[in-house]
């Protein structure tokens, strides 16, 4: 048997997914299976952080911008801010975490971790390893109240890390923001940290639920980062959640007021350079 045949045989016997090895008829007679949590601390070591910066700025960032026309506004709100904080955003696409992490300046990328759904991003070892390394991610078990995730989040915040979370809990099926859950607000109050709102427009149109790659034509995506929010003395998590929801809604409305136009969607703009394009779009909005 040649090398190719040996590799094929090995691949056929390798467990690429989570298919059970015990026959269904024997399951009632087997002891309960352990459900270990995939370790992620290694991805936030010095070596893991250095690798992540390369992946984000040399790999994923350029790849993302080759597929969507991305523009980021509001980075000035981060200049006088120190970690850790919690970045929170509306959630309508699997692009969202990549958009946020590649939009953040490098000093934030170094110590920012994404909370990712355990049942999807940590279901098999290779996807879990990629998610942990690329996003500094830790798993959130949505079916069990996310107790372990809250503990890990507090540890990271206490160590000066920032977090990226999506308070809706899952992607929007229609692109419209849904009700924010209270977990993020409660974490901010208990840890005494600020929350930075982010509004993302266009990600759903670029890659909605059911797609694994963005649509053709470099669809426009706009990211707006708002001023940080801080819990006020005596403020309840319900009240803080309402303020968080309002902050994201205002960023999305601000984006809606400015039509999204790109060269790929309007061929008449091909004659303009990137600098002249901004001026032309301002002129069109004012007329």
Layout of secondary structure:
Blueprint lengths: L2 H11 L32 H22 L1 E5 L12 E4 L6 H8 L2 H4 L2 E6 H4 L3 H11 L2 E3 L6 H12 L3 E4 L17 H9 L3 E7 L1 H4 L13 E6 L11 H21 L16 H12 L2
Parallel strand pairs: 1-7, 2-5, 2-6, 3-4, 3-5
Antiparallel strand pairs: 6-7
Helix pairs in contact: 2-3, 8-10
Overview of the molecule:
- The structure is a single chain.
- With 287 residues, this protein is an alpha/beta fold.
- Helices cover 41% and strands 12% of the residues.
- The chain has eleven helices and seven strands.
- It has a seven-stranded mixed sheet, with helices on both faces.
- α8 packs across α10.
- The chain is globular, with a radius of gyration of 21 Å.
- About 2% of the residues have low confidence.
Short description:
With 287 residues, the protein is of the alpha/beta class.
Major sheet attributes: 7 strands, mixed
Proportion of residues in extended strands:
5-15%
DSSP strand tally: 7
In whole angstroms, the N-to-C terminal distance is 73 Å
The overall pLDDT, averaged over residues, is 85
| Strand order within the widest beta sheet | 1-7-6-2-5-3-4
Structural class: alpha/beta
Helix content: 40-55%
SS summary, helix count: 11
The string of secondary-structure elements, in order, is HHEEHHEHHEHEHEHEHH
């Amino acid at each position: 048997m040649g090398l190719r045949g040996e590799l094929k045989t090995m691949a056929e016997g390798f467990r690429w997914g989570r298919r059970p090895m015990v026959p269904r008829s024997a399951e009632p007679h087997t002891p309960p299976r352990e459900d270990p949590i995939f370790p992620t601390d290694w991805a936030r070591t010095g070596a893991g952080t250095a690798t992540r910066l390369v992946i984000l700025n040399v790999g994923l960032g350029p790849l993302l911008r080759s597929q969507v026309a991305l523009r980021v506004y509001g980075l000035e709100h981060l200049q006088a801010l120190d970690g850790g904080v919690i970045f929170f955003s509306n959630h309508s696409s699997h692009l969202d975490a990549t958009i946020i992490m590649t939009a953040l300046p490098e000093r934030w990328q170094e110590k920012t971790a994404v909370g990712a759904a355990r049942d999807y991003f940590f279901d098999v070892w290779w996807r879990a390893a990629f998610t942990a390394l690329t996003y500094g991610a830790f798993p959130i078990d949505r079916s069990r109240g996310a107790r372990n995730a809250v503990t890990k989040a507090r540890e990271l915040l206490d160590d000066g890390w920032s977090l990226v979370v999506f308070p809706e809990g899952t992607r929007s099926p229609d692109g419209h923001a849904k009700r924010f859950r209270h977990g993020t607000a409660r974490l901010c109050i208990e840890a005494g940290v600020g929350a930075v709102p982010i509004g993302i427009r266009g990600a759903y149109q670029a890659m909605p639920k059911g797609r694994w790659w963005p649509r053709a034509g470099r669809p426009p995506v706009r990211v707006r980062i708002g001023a940080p929010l801080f819990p006020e003395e005596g403020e309840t998590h319900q009240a803080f959640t309402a303020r968080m929801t309002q902050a994201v809604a205002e960023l999305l409305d601000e984006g809606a007021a400015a039509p999204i136009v790109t060269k790929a969607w309007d061929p008449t703009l091909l004659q303009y350079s990137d600098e002249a394009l901004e001026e032309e779009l301002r002129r069109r909005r004012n007329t």
